[in-house]
Each structure stands twice: as C-alpha cells, then as structure tokens.
Amino acid sequence: MTGAHVDTVAASAAHTFSKQPVPAIELVAGIGVSGDAHAGETVKHRSRVARDPSQPNLRQVHLIHGELLDALTARGFDVAPAALGENLTSRGIDLLALSTGTVLLLGTAAAVEVTGLRNPCRQLDAYRSGLMQAVLDRDAEGRLLRLAGVMAVVRTGGTVRPGDAIEARPPDGPYRPLEPV
C-alpha cells in the first residue's frame, strides 16, 4: 500500500502496557478511543491522575509510526504493533515532524489533533531491556529527541480501520515543534 495510512489499530479497557490489535476502533469526539482505559475528557494516565485528576486529557489517542517499530526490530528488539501501548500504528507519515495542532484525517470521517510527543517512561525497559534508551536520541545541538510517537485528541469521531488513509492538515500560522505532553 502506498501513501500515508493506518497499519494497525488497538485498544485496551485496562491500564496495561500493551494494547490488543483489533479490526477497528471507534473514536469519540473529545473522549478518545471507545472502550480504551485512556479515554476521557480529563487525564487517565495514572501518574498524571495522581498529580491532578482535573487536567484536560491531551493524550486521548497514542500514535506511533510503524517505521519506528521496523528500526527497533532491526536493532534486536521484538516490538510488534500495539506492543508499546499505541492505539494507532501509521505508515508513510513522519509523525514526529508534524506541527503541534496538525489535524490528521483518518479514513472517511475521523479526525484527531496532534497535541504533542509521547514522553517515554521506564515501563519501556520493563517490557524490553534497553528499549527506553532506544526511543531517545540527540539532535546536532544536543537536544533530547523523543521518538516514541505522538499524542492527540479526537476532534471528529468515526470508525478507523487498518488500511484507512491518513491526511495531514497543518494548522494555520507558523510551525510549532512538538513538545512532550
């Protein structure tokens, strides 16, 4: 398949590290993935809930580019789609290069707005030793690069399936680099 598209979709009703690939996910505007433990208007990630449960949920949907999984596999890590907790694995789109506020049209109806970068945590090393370091890098100026995908909020609900096209619509105004959320 050519062009940017959805490779895998996944969800988990429990707060598990990995999610289960499914034939389709239903995105709900302002909430996230129907039936997923991280769905909701306010934060659902346990560490964030402990700090302030009233924070808005900027992490309703987690997206990882499948090319990262390929690179990790080439380095000896056994990492399949959905294993790192993502709801959507993409192909053919550089998620990390998007501007904050980019809207991703998914399939025929759904749309998510990219809010920022996933901030890798120690759970990665519990899953596969050395994996956290493998999803971190440094740029030419020495700044930390987080490679473990992006987070988004659902703007328009709809069903998303593997094979659905992905179209990126940048926000109005200047490019805003992604920051951890």
Summarize this structure as a short list of keywords or feature phrases.
4 helices, globular, three-stranded antiparallel beta sheet, MOSC_domain, MoCF_Sase_C, MOSC domain-containing protein, alpha+beta, M1 Pyruvate Kinase, Domain 3, 181 residues, Pyrv_Knase-like_insert_dom_sf, eight-stranded mixed beta sheet
List the helices and strands and how they pair.
Elements: E1 5-11, E2 20-22, E3 25-28, E4 32-33, H1 46-51, E5 61-65, H2 66-74, E6 88-91, E7 103-106, E8 110-117, H3 123-127, H4 131-134, E9 136-138, E10 144-146, E11 150-156, E12 158-160, E13 166-169
Parallel strand pairs: 5-6
Antiparallel strand pairs: 1-2, 1-6, 3-4, 3-12, 5-11, 7-8, 7-13, 8-11, 9-10
Organism: Rhodovibrio sodomensis
Protein name: MOSC domain-containing protein
InterPro entries: MoCF_Sase_C, MOSC_domain, Pyrv_Knase-like_insert_dom_sf
Describe this structure in words.
By secondary structure, this protein is of the alpha+beta class. It has one domain (5-169): PK beta-barrel domain-like (M1 Pyruvate Kinase, Domain 3, Beta Barrel). It is built from 4 helices and 13 strands. The chain has helices at 46-51, 66-74, 123-127, 131-134; strands spanning 5-11, 20-22, 25-28, 32-33, 61-65, 88-91, 103-106, 110-117, 136-138, 144-146, 150-156, 158-160, 166-169. The strands form 3 sheets. Strands 2-1-6-5-11-8-7-13 form an 8-stranded mixed beta sheet. Strands 4-3-12 form a 3-stranded antiparallel beta sheet, with no helix packed on it. A two-stranded antiparallel sheet has the order 9-10.
